[in-house]
Design goal:
Length: about 250
């Protein structure tokens, strides 16, 4: 471990965040009517800065032509390895995420997330699933939404299964395209955040690296035509295999 690199990178990250947060809040508050258009672009800019701070290099983006042809009605389905994943997807696609409800009450950050259209999920409520699905369906018409159906970060070797609930969005809105995306860190064993690591322990491992390489692959989209042939559970399994498959090649 290199504590000095950790403190330097985290300090720069915190300074940038503290400097930008008030401006972002002001811009989104003044432009409230257009917040769901402005917000993702602001966070995309912030995420690109964060990737530079943590020295993340995206090696390859495969099969992205179909994605570039669509600007709306897209739901990104990705594996989840690191806290860096959010910065990667936001920087590349300007995506908005589904977040735990507690984030909404974080000072400044929570208010910015709410203003820009982040979808909050109360994991302790049994009635939340349908509300969140409807929120995703509604926001997909104007934004790119990204979800991690594994529910938590893990190493490649753990192969956590996808939760099938999110895949019902296409049944609720047949115009939505699901875009399976594979995030593959070259040094997954060091980069991935897994139990029993704390966030600080994982961040120290991430910051200790001079350079972090990630390969990003966008797969063939899943549409309502695929759903007509299969049950939701089958679609979930197909997308899971599509996303996790390249991680073992």
């Amino acid at each position: 471990m290199t504590p000095l690199k950790f403190y330097v990178k985290i300090s720069i990250f915190l300074i940038v965040t503290i400097m930008l947060a008030p401006w972002y809040f002001l811009i989104l508050f003044i432009g409230y009517k257009w917040r769901e258009t402005i917000g993702p672009k602001l966070v995309q800019f912030y995420s690109r800065i964060c990737l530079s701070i943590f020295r993340v290099h995206i090696e390859k983006i495969s099969n992205d032509q179909t994605f570039k042809q669509r600007k709306k009605g897209m739901l990104i389905i990705s594996n989840h390895s690191s806290f860096l994943d959010i910065f990667v997807l936001s920087a590349m696609f300007g995506s908005v995420f589904v977040s735990k409800a507690e984030v909404k009450f974080y000072p400044v950050i929570g208010q910015i997330a709410w203003l820009m259209g982040v979808i909050f999920l109360d994991r302790n409520s049994s009635h939340e699933r349908l509300r969140v699905l409807n929120a995703i369906v509604d926001k997909c018409s104007n934004q790119v939404i990204a979800v991690f159906p594994q529910g938590t970060t893990s190493r490649i070797t753990e192969r956590l299964s996808f939760r099938r609930g999110i895949f019902k969005v296409v049944e609720l809105n047949p115009d939505i395209f699901l875009f399976p995306v594979t995030l593959h860190y070259r040094d997954d064993a060091d980069i991935s955040w897994h139990k029993p690591q704390s966030l600080k322990e994982n961040a120290m491992r991430v910051c200790a690296r001079d350079r972090i390489y990630i390969k990003l692959t966008i797969h063939k989209p899943v549409t309502i035509d695929d759903y007509r042939k299969s049950a939701t559970s089958q679609i979930c399994k197909i997308v899971e295999q599509t996303v996790l498959g390249p991680l073992h090649n």
